[in-house]
Specification:
mainly alpha, about 45% helix, globular
């Protein structure tokens, strides 16, 4: 097995972060944020609300792994208070899955 195969197998574990959002009375689930996703989201100039909305549309899942939002939800998502969007996104960005945490 090559080094790249070993690295890829670590990320294939699909460990997810559960984020409780009391304002919405829901818990959403997130896979780790990848470089490919970052490139996709930051490929053009966007305002903060648009970037945060796109992040949630791309990443947010229900417990069963289905996506919560789709592109059609974007206009309404951008009207959600940015403080809530930012809080959720920041939790995902700050998260290190246990399987990737060198302290474990």
């Amino acid at each position: 097995m090559s080094l790249m195969d070993e690295i890829a197998s670590i990320y294939a574990e699909k460990e997810r972060l559960a984020v409780s959002i009391p304002e919405w009375n829901i818990t959403l689930y997130f896979l780790p944020y990848t470089g490919r996703e970052r490139d996709r989201l930051q490929d053009r100039k966007k305002g903060e609300a648009e970037l945060l909305s796109d992040f949630l549309i791309l990443k947010a899942q229900l417990e069963d792994g289905t996506n919560v939002f789709d592109r059609g939800d974007k206009p309404r998502m951008m009207r959600v208070p940015v403080k809530i969007l930012d809080h959720v996104v920041q939790q995902v960005l700050d998260w290190t899955p246990e399987s990737l945490d060198p302290g474990n």
